[in-house]
Specification:
The chain is mainly alpha-helical. The protein has a single domain, classed as MFS general substrate transporter like domains (Growth Hormone, Chain: A). The chain is built from 20 helices and two strands. The chain has helices at residues 4-16, 19-44, 46-53, 57-84, 87-105, 111-125, 128-139, 142-153, 155-174, 178-194, 215-223, 226-257, 261-275, 278-292, 296-317, 322-348, 355-371, 374-384, 388-413, 417-422; strands at 200-202, 428-430. Strands 1-2 form a two-stranded antiparallel sheet. It is globular and about 55 Å long.
Length: 432
Protein backbone atom coordinates (compact mmCIF):
# COMPACT_ATOMS: atom_id res chain seq x y z
CA UNK A 1 0.00 0.00 0.00
CA UNK A 2 1.40 3.40 -0.93
CA UNK A 3 1.88 6.02 1.73
CA UNK A 4 0.52 9.54 1.24
CA UNK A 5 3.98 11.01 0.58
CA UNK A 6 4.62 8.62 -2.34
CA UNK A 7 1.23 9.32 -3.88
CA UNK A 8 1.71 13.08 -3.52
CA UNK A 9 5.13 12.87 -5.18
CA UNK A 10 3.75 10.98 -8.16
CA UNK A 11 0.79 13.31 -8.54
CA UNK A 12 3.32 16.16 -8.56
CA UNK A 13 5.25 14.38 -11.35
CA UNK A 14 1.98 14.00 -13.25
CA UNK A 15 1.45 17.76 -13.12
CA UNK A 16 4.90 18.56 -14.53
CA UNK A 17 5.49 15.66 -16.91
CA UNK A 18 8.78 13.78 -16.96
CA UNK A 19 10.75 11.12 -18.80
CA UNK A 20 8.00 8.54 -18.20
CA UNK A 21 5.45 10.84 -19.78
CA UNK A 22 7.72 11.60 -22.74
CA UNK A 23 8.44 7.90 -23.34
CA UNK A 24 4.70 7.21 -23.40
CA UNK A 25 4.19 10.08 -25.86
CA UNK A 26 7.02 8.92 -28.16
CA UNK A 27 5.98 5.26 -28.32
CA UNK A 28 2.28 6.06 -28.74
CA UNK A 29 3.05 8.62 -31.46
CA UNK A 30 5.23 6.18 -33.40
CA UNK A 31 2.55 3.51 -33.12
CA UNK A 32 -0.04 5.98 -34.32
CA UNK A 33 2.14 6.67 -37.39
CA UNK A 34 2.25 2.95 -38.18
CA UNK A 35 -1.47 2.75 -37.47
CA UNK A 36 -2.21 5.31 -40.17
CA UNK A 37 0.32 3.87 -42.59
CA UNK A 38 -1.51 0.53 -42.35
CA UNK A 39 -4.84 2.29 -42.89
CA UNK A 40 -3.95 4.72 -45.64
CA UNK A 41 -1.84 2.47 -47.82
CA UNK A 42 -5.19 0.96 -48.79
CA UNK A 43 -6.29 4.15 -50.51
CA UNK A 44 -3.34 4.29 -52.89
CA UNK A 45 -3.59 0.63 -53.93
CA UNK A 46 -7.37 0.72 -54.47
CA UNK A 47 -7.10 1.21 -58.23
CA UNK A 48 -4.59 -1.61 -58.97
CA UNK A 49 -6.36 -3.89 -56.46
CA UNK A 50 -9.69 -3.10 -58.13
CA UNK A 51 -8.30 -4.12 -61.52
CA UNK A 52 -6.50 -7.20 -60.19
CA UNK A 53 -9.49 -8.57 -58.26
CA UNK A 54 -12.22 -7.23 -60.56
CA UNK A 55 -13.99 -5.06 -57.97
CA UNK A 56 -16.53 -2.22 -58.28
CA UNK A 57 -16.16 1.18 -56.61
CA UNK A 58 -18.76 0.15 -54.01
CA UNK A 59 -16.79 -3.02 -53.19
CA UNK A 60 -13.61 -0.97 -52.83
CA UNK A 61 -15.44 1.39 -50.48
CA UNK A 62 -16.76 -1.57 -48.48
CA UNK A 63 -13.25 -3.00 -48.17
CA UNK A 64 -12.27 0.29 -46.52
CA UNK A 65 -15.43 0.50 -44.45
CA UNK A 66 -15.06 -2.97 -42.90
CA UNK A 67 -11.90 -1.83 -41.08
CA UNK A 68 -13.86 1.03 -39.59
CA UNK A 69 -16.63 -1.33 -38.46
CA UNK A 70 -14.02 -3.40 -36.65
CA UNK A 71 -12.79 -0.30 -34.84
CA UNK A 72 -16.22 1.15 -34.14
CA UNK A 73 -17.97 -1.90 -32.71
CA UNK A 74 -15.16 -2.82 -30.33
CA UNK A 75 -13.68 0.58 -29.44
CA UNK A 76 -15.68 1.57 -26.37
CA UNK A 77 -16.15 -1.88 -24.75
CA UNK A 78 -12.41 -2.51 -25.17
CA UNK A 79 -11.67 1.00 -23.88
CA UNK A 80 -13.82 0.33 -20.80
CA UNK A 81 -11.87 -2.87 -20.11
CA UNK A 82 -8.54 -1.14 -20.74
CA UNK A 83 -9.35 1.48 -18.08
CA UNK A 84 -9.77 -1.39 -15.61
CA UNK A 85 -6.93 -3.65 -16.76
CA UNK A 86 -3.74 -2.25 -18.31
CA UNK A 87 -3.55 0.31 -21.09
CA UNK A 88 0.16 -0.48 -21.52
CA UNK A 89 -0.35 -4.21 -22.13
CA UNK A 90 -3.44 -3.66 -24.27
CA UNK A 91 -1.63 -1.17 -26.56
CA UNK A 92 1.31 -3.54 -26.98
CA UNK A 93 -0.81 -6.61 -27.76
CA UNK A 94 -3.12 -4.74 -30.13
CA UNK A 95 -0.20 -3.30 -32.10
CA UNK A 96 1.17 -6.78 -32.67
CA UNK A 97 -2.29 -8.12 -33.57
CA UNK A 98 -3.15 -5.42 -36.14
CA UNK A 99 0.32 -5.77 -37.71
CA UNK A 100 -0.23 -9.49 -38.26
CA UNK A 101 -3.63 -8.72 -39.83
CA UNK A 102 -1.98 -6.12 -42.09
CA UNK A 103 0.46 -8.77 -43.29
CA UNK A 104 -2.47 -11.11 -43.99
CA UNK A 105 -4.11 -8.44 -46.18
CA UNK A 106 -1.14 -8.60 -48.51
CA UNK A 107 -1.70 -12.35 -48.93
CA UNK A 108 -5.35 -11.98 -50.03
CA UNK A 109 -6.40 -13.52 -53.36
CA UNK A 110 -10.08 -12.52 -53.55
CA UNK A 111 -12.56 -9.97 -52.22
CA UNK A 112 -13.57 -11.93 -49.10
CA UNK A 113 -9.92 -12.57 -48.28
CA UNK A 114 -9.40 -8.80 -48.29
CA UNK A 115 -12.43 -8.07 -46.09
CA UNK A 116 -11.60 -10.49 -43.26
CA UNK A 117 -8.06 -9.29 -42.41
CA UNK A 118 -9.09 -5.64 -42.86
CA UNK A 119 -11.79 -6.20 -40.24
CA UNK A 120 -9.17 -7.65 -37.90
CA UNK A 121 -6.88 -4.68 -38.53
CA UNK A 122 -9.74 -2.50 -37.30
CA UNK A 123 -10.32 -4.78 -34.32
CA UNK A 124 -6.65 -4.59 -33.40
CA UNK A 125 -6.67 -0.81 -33.66
CA UNK A 126 -9.94 -0.46 -31.72
CA UNK A 127 -8.36 -0.01 -28.30
CA UNK A 128 -5.18 1.76 -29.32
CA UNK A 129 -6.46 5.32 -29.69
CA UNK A 130 -8.57 5.22 -26.46
CA UNK A 131 -5.72 3.60 -24.55
CA UNK A 132 -3.03 5.86 -25.99
CA UNK A 133 -5.09 9.01 -25.54
CA UNK A 134 -5.93 8.10 -21.94
CA UNK A 135 -2.28 7.32 -21.12
CA UNK A 136 -1.03 10.59 -22.60
CA UNK A 137 -3.86 12.52 -20.95
CA UNK A 138 -3.01 11.02 -17.55
CA UNK A 139 0.70 11.73 -18.10
CA UNK A 140 0.28 15.49 -18.62
CA UNK A 141 -1.76 18.17 -16.81
CA UNK A 142 -4.74 19.93 -18.41
CA UNK A 143 -2.65 22.99 -19.22
CA UNK A 144 -0.29 20.93 -21.42
CA UNK A 145 -2.86 18.51 -22.78
CA UNK A 146 -3.41 20.35 -26.07
CA UNK A 147 0.36 20.41 -26.70
CA UNK A 148 0.74 16.69 -25.96
CA UNK A 149 -2.22 15.82 -28.15
CA UNK A 150 -0.77 18.03 -30.89
CA UNK A 151 2.42 15.95 -30.89
CA UNK A 152 0.41 12.70 -30.77
CA UNK A 153 -1.78 13.74 -33.69
CA UNK A 154 1.16 14.69 -35.89
CA UNK A 155 1.08 10.95 -36.48
CA UNK A 156 -2.13 11.11 -38.52
CA UNK A 157 -0.92 13.29 -41.43
CA UNK A 158 2.62 11.90 -41.16
CA UNK A 159 1.43 8.29 -41.14
CA UNK A 160 -1.11 8.95 -43.89
CA UNK A 161 1.55 10.64 -46.03
CA UNK A 162 4.10 7.89 -45.44
CA UNK A 163 1.46 5.26 -46.18
CA UNK A 164 0.45 6.67 -49.56
CA UNK A 165 3.95 7.73 -50.66
CA UNK A 166 5.78 4.54 -49.72
CA UNK A 167 2.75 2.42 -50.55
CA UNK A 168 2.45 3.94 -54.01
CA UNK A 169 6.15 3.50 -54.77
CA UNK A 170 6.21 -0.09 -53.50
CA UNK A 171 3.01 -0.90 -55.37
CA UNK A 172 4.37 0.33 -58.71
CA UNK A 173 7.68 -1.49 -58.31
CA UNK A 174 6.66 -4.72 -56.59
CA UNK A 175 2.85 -4.95 -56.83
CA UNK A 176 -0.04 -3.79 -54.63
CA UNK A 177 0.42 -6.56 -52.05
CA UNK A 178 3.97 -5.60 -51.06
CA UNK A 179 3.21 -2.48 -48.94
CA UNK A 180 1.07 -4.53 -46.53
CA UNK A 181 3.89 -7.02 -45.99
CA UNK A 182 6.44 -4.23 -45.55
CA UNK A 183 4.43 -2.10 -43.10
CA UNK A 184 3.63 -4.99 -40.75
CA UNK A 185 7.20 -5.28 -39.42
CA UNK A 186 7.63 -1.95 -37.52
CA UNK A 187 4.24 -2.43 -35.86
CA UNK A 188 5.43 -5.65 -34.23
CA UNK A 189 8.70 -4.04 -33.07
CA UNK A 190 6.95 -1.02 -31.54
CA UNK A 191 4.36 -3.30 -29.95
CA UNK A 192 7.18 -5.01 -28.05
CA UNK A 193 8.64 -1.65 -26.97
CA UNK A 194 5.20 -0.59 -25.70
CA UNK A 195 5.43 -3.19 -22.93
CA UNK A 196 8.07 -0.95 -21.31
CA UNK A 197 5.81 2.11 -20.98
CA UNK A 198 4.79 3.17 -17.47
CA UNK A 199 1.04 3.62 -17.10
CA UNK A 200 -0.95 5.75 -14.68
CA UNK A 201 -3.69 4.15 -12.65
CA UNK A 202 -6.91 5.85 -11.70
CA UNK A 203 -6.76 7.33 -8.22
CA UNK A 204 -9.42 6.06 -5.86
CA UNK A 205 -12.47 8.29 -5.65
CA UNK A 206 -15.24 8.19 -3.05
CA UNK A 207 -17.87 6.88 -5.46
CA UNK A 208 -15.65 4.20 -6.98
CA UNK A 209 -13.52 2.99 -4.05
CA UNK A 210 -14.16 -0.63 -3.22
CA UNK A 211 -15.26 -1.55 -6.73
CA UNK A 212 -15.81 -0.21 -10.23
CA UNK A 213 -19.14 0.99 -11.50
CA UNK A 214 -20.88 -1.20 -14.02
CA UNK A 215 -20.22 -0.60 -17.69
CA UNK A 216 -23.66 0.86 -18.31
CA UNK A 217 -23.47 3.20 -15.33
CA UNK A 218 -20.07 4.42 -16.52
CA UNK A 219 -21.51 4.87 -20.00
CA UNK A 220 -24.38 6.91 -18.57
CA UNK A 221 -21.92 9.07 -16.61
CA UNK A 222 -20.28 10.16 -19.87
CA UNK A 223 -23.42 10.50 -21.98
CA UNK A 224 -25.29 12.56 -19.40
CA UNK A 225 -22.89 15.43 -20.13
CA UNK A 226 -24.54 17.70 -22.73
CA UNK A 227 -21.14 18.74 -24.07
CA UNK A 228 -20.27 15.16 -24.92
CA UNK A 229 -23.57 14.38 -26.64
CA UNK A 230 -23.16 17.24 -29.14
CA UNK A 231 -19.44 16.51 -29.35
CA UNK A 232 -20.00 12.89 -30.40
CA UNK A 233 -22.59 13.90 -33.00
CA UNK A 234 -20.32 16.57 -34.49
CA UNK A 235 -17.38 14.20 -34.53
CA UNK A 236 -19.32 11.55 -36.46
CA UNK A 237 -20.35 14.06 -39.12
CA UNK A 238 -16.81 15.46 -39.37
CA UNK A 239 -15.25 12.03 -39.88
CA UNK A 240 -17.70 11.28 -42.68
CA UNK A 241 -15.84 14.00 -44.57
CA UNK A 242 -12.27 13.27 -43.50
CA UNK A 243 -12.35 9.47 -43.81
CA UNK A 244 -14.00 9.61 -47.24
CA UNK A 245 -11.43 12.11 -48.51
CA UNK A 246 -8.55 10.00 -47.18
CA UNK A 247 -9.86 6.91 -48.99
CA UNK A 248 -10.92 8.46 -52.31
CA UNK A 249 -8.55 11.38 -52.90
CA UNK A 250 -5.81 9.34 -54.69
CA UNK A 251 -8.38 7.61 -56.92
CA UNK A 252 -9.99 10.96 -57.76
CA UNK A 253 -6.61 12.35 -58.74
CA UNK A 254 -5.89 9.34 -60.94
CA UNK A 255 -9.19 9.81 -62.74
CA UNK A 256 -9.07 13.59 -63.12
CA UNK A 257 -5.36 13.90 -63.88
CA UNK A 258 -4.79 10.52 -65.60
CA UNK A 259 -1.77 9.67 -63.45
CA UNK A 260 -0.40 6.46 -61.85
CA UNK A 261 -0.93 5.42 -58.25
CA UNK A 262 2.71 6.35 -57.51
CA UNK A 263 2.21 9.95 -58.68
CA UNK A 264 -1.15 10.18 -56.94
CA UNK A 265 0.51 8.84 -53.78
CA UNK A 266 3.27 11.42 -53.97
CA UNK A 267 0.81 14.31 -54.43
CA UNK A 268 -1.50 13.01 -51.70
CA UNK A 269 1.48 12.38 -49.45
CA UNK A 270 2.72 15.91 -50.07
CA UNK A 271 -0.65 17.25 -49.01
CA UNK A 272 -0.42 15.04 -45.93
CA UNK A 273 3.06 16.30 -45.11
CA UNK A 274 1.80 19.88 -45.26
CA UNK A 275 -1.02 18.82 -42.92
CA UNK A 276 1.64 17.91 -40.34
CA UNK A 277 1.70 21.63 -39.57
CA UNK A 278 -1.95 21.45 -38.54
CA UNK A 279 -1.63 19.13 -35.55
CA UNK A 280 0.95 21.06 -33.47
CA UNK A 281 -0.60 24.35 -34.59
CA UNK A 282 -4.02 23.13 -33.48
CA UNK A 283 -2.63 21.92 -30.15
CA UNK A 284 -0.90 25.24 -29.50
CA UNK A 285 -3.95 27.29 -30.49
CA UNK A 286 -6.25 25.07 -28.42
CA UNK A 287 -4.22 25.70 -25.25
CA UNK A 288 -3.68 29.39 -26.07
CA UNK A 289 -7.31 30.12 -26.93
CA UNK A 290 -8.51 28.23 -23.86
CA UNK A 291 -6.46 30.56 -21.64
CA UNK A 292 -8.19 33.55 -23.26
CA UNK A 293 -11.70 32.13 -23.52
CA UNK A 294 -13.43 29.36 -21.56
CA UNK A 295 -14.75 27.93 -24.86
CA UNK A 296 -11.51 28.45 -26.80
CA UNK A 297 -10.52 24.81 -27.19
CA UNK A 298 -13.95 23.93 -28.57
CA UNK A 299 -13.78 26.77 -31.11
CA UNK A 300 -10.83 25.11 -32.89
CA UNK A 301 -12.92 22.33 -34.55
CA UNK A 302 -15.68 24.87 -35.28
CA UNK A 303 -13.35 26.99 -37.41
CA UNK A 304 -11.35 24.08 -38.82
CA UNK A 305 -14.29 22.03 -40.13
CA UNK A 306 -16.34 24.88 -41.57
CA UNK A 307 -13.31 26.25 -43.42
CA UNK A 308 -12.18 22.74 -44.41
CA UNK A 309 -15.58 21.85 -45.87
CA UNK A 310 -15.64 24.97 -48.01
CA UNK A 311 -12.07 24.39 -49.22
CA UNK A 312 -12.80 20.76 -50.18
CA UNK A 313 -15.61 21.82 -52.51
CA UNK A 314 -13.40 24.46 -54.13
CA UNK A 315 -10.52 21.99 -54.58
CA UNK A 316 -12.68 19.54 -56.53
CA UNK A 317 -14.15 22.33 -58.66
CA UNK A 318 -10.61 23.36 -59.69
CA UNK A 319 -9.97 19.75 -60.85
CA UNK A 320 -6.65 19.76 -59.01
CA UNK A 321 -5.09 22.70 -60.77
CA UNK A 322 -1.98 24.14 -59.10
CA UNK A 323 -4.23 26.45 -57.09
CA UNK A 324 -6.46 23.50 -56.22
CA UNK A 325 -3.53 21.45 -54.91
CA UNK A 326 -2.39 24.43 -52.83
CA UNK A 327 -5.89 24.75 -51.38
CA UNK A 328 -5.92 20.99 -50.74
CA UNK A 329 -2.85 21.52 -48.56
CA UNK A 330 -4.77 24.16 -46.58
CA UNK A 331 -7.70 21.73 -46.28
CA UNK A 332 -5.28 19.14 -44.86
CA UNK A 333 -3.96 21.65 -42.33
CA UNK A 334 -7.53 22.45 -41.23
CA UNK A 335 -8.47 18.78 -40.84
CA UNK A 336 -5.32 18.05 -38.82
CA UNK A 337 -5.67 21.24 -36.76
CA UNK A 338 -8.95 20.04 -35.25
CA UNK A 339 -7.59 16.71 -34.01
CA UNK A 340 -5.60 17.72 -30.89
CA UNK A 341 -8.48 19.83 -29.60
CA UNK A 342 -10.97 17.02 -30.25
CA UNK A 343 -8.82 14.50 -28.37
CA UNK A 344 -8.23 16.90 -25.47
CA UNK A 345 -11.93 17.76 -25.19
CA UNK A 346 -12.79 14.07 -24.82
CA UNK A 347 -10.57 14.05 -21.72
CA UNK A 348 -11.32 17.51 -20.32
CA UNK A 349 -14.87 16.96 -19.10
CA UNK A 350 -14.72 13.36 -17.79
CA UNK A 351 -13.04 11.98 -14.63
CA UNK A 352 -9.85 9.91 -14.82
CA UNK A 353 -11.79 6.67 -14.35
CA UNK A 354 -13.67 7.24 -17.63
CA UNK A 355 -11.00 8.79 -19.87
CA UNK A 356 -10.39 5.66 -21.94
CA UNK A 357 -14.13 5.02 -22.20
CA UNK A 358 -14.74 8.61 -23.32
CA UNK A 359 -12.24 8.28 -26.16
CA UNK A 360 -13.62 4.84 -27.02
CA UNK A 361 -17.07 6.36 -27.35
CA UNK A 362 -15.56 9.08 -29.52
CA UNK A 363 -14.17 6.46 -31.89
CA UNK A 364 -17.48 4.60 -31.93
CA UNK A 365 -19.36 7.83 -32.66
CA UNK A 366 -17.00 9.14 -35.30
CA UNK A 367 -17.18 5.95 -37.30
CA UNK A 368 -20.70 4.65 -36.70
CA UNK A 369 -22.26 8.09 -37.21
CA UNK A 370 -20.22 8.91 -40.28
CA UNK A 371 -16.81 7.40 -40.96
CA UNK A 372 -17.93 3.79 -41.39
CA UNK A 373 -20.47 4.78 -44.02
CA UNK A 374 -18.57 7.58 -45.68
CA UNK A 375 -16.22 5.68 -48.04
CA UNK A 376 -18.97 3.25 -49.04
CA UNK A 377 -21.57 6.00 -49.60
CA UNK A 378 -19.12 8.05 -51.66
CA UNK A 379 -18.36 4.97 -53.77
CA UNK A 380 -22.06 4.17 -54.16
CA UNK A 381 -22.94 7.77 -55.08
CA UNK A 382 -20.10 7.72 -57.62
CA UNK A 383 -21.46 4.50 -59.15
CA UNK A 384 -24.98 5.97 -59.18
CA UNK A 385 -23.74 9.02 -61.08
CA UNK A 386 -22.03 6.90 -63.69
CA UNK A 387 -18.66 6.45 -62.01
CA UNK A 388 -15.56 7.84 -63.64
CA UNK A 389 -14.09 11.24 -62.85
CA UNK A 390 -17.36 13.19 -62.84
CA UNK A 391 -19.30 10.77 -60.65
CA UNK A 392 -16.54 10.58 -58.04
CA UNK A 393 -16.03 14.37 -58.13
CA UNK A 394 -19.67 15.01 -57.24
CA UNK A 395 -19.56 12.40 -54.48
CA UNK A 396 -16.45 13.93 -52.89
CA UNK A 397 -17.92 17.46 -53.00
CA UNK A 398 -20.86 16.14 -50.99
CA UNK A 399 -18.39 15.53 -48.16
CA UNK A 400 -17.68 19.27 -47.92
CA UNK A 401 -21.24 19.91 -46.76
CA UNK A 402 -20.77 17.39 -43.95
CA UNK A 403 -17.70 19.30 -42.78
CA UNK A 404 -19.67 22.55 -42.53
CA UNK A 405 -22.44 20.80 -40.59
CA UNK A 406 -19.86 19.32 -38.19
CA UNK A 407 -18.50 22.77 -37.38
CA UNK A 408 -22.00 23.98 -36.50
CA UNK A 409 -22.54 21.02 -34.15
CA UNK A 410 -19.26 21.71 -32.32
CA UNK A 411 -20.41 25.31 -31.91
CA UNK A 412 -23.54 24.01 -30.15
CA UNK A 413 -21.34 21.81 -27.91
CA UNK A 414 -19.30 24.85 -26.87
CA UNK A 415 -22.26 26.29 -24.93
CA UNK A 416 -21.92 23.81 -22.02
CA UNK A 417 -18.20 23.06 -22.29
CA UNK A 418 -16.97 25.56 -19.62
CA UNK A 419 -19.42 24.31 -17.01
CA UNK A 420 -18.57 20.64 -17.61
CA UNK A 421 -14.82 21.43 -17.59
CA UNK A 422 -15.01 22.97 -14.12
CA UNK A 423 -16.58 19.85 -12.61
CA UNK A 424 -13.59 17.57 -13.33
CA UNK A 425 -10.67 16.94 -11.00
CA UNK A 426 -7.67 15.09 -12.50
CA UNK A 427 -5.84 12.75 -10.15
CA UNK A 428 -3.79 9.69 -11.00
CA UNK A 429 -0.91 7.57 -9.62
CA UNK A 430 1.75 5.44 -11.26
CA UNK A 431 1.10 1.71 -11.55
CA UNK A 432 3.21 -0.74 -9.56
Amino acid sequence: MRDQETVSKQISELKTGGWRAHYVLIICTLLYIINYMDRQVFSVILQPMKIDLGLTDAQCGLASTVLIFGMAFFSFPIAYLIDRWSRRKAIALMAIFWSIATFATGMARNFIAVLIPRFFVGLGEAGFVPGGTAMISASYPKEKRGWAMGIFHIAIPLGAAAGVILGGLLSVKYGWRTPFLFFAVPGVILGILAFFMKDYKTAEQPDTAGGFKSFFVALADVLKLPTMRWYYLGLGIAVFMTSSVLVWLPSLMMRLMNISEAKAGIITGGIGLMAILGAPLGGFLADFWQKKNSRGRMYIPVVAYILGGILLIVVVLTRFSYVGIALACVYGICAAMAMPAIAAISQDVVPVAHKGLSMGLAIFAQYMLGGAWGPYIVGAVSDGLGGGAEGLSAAVMLCGGFGILAGILFLVASRTYPEDWQKVKDEAILEE
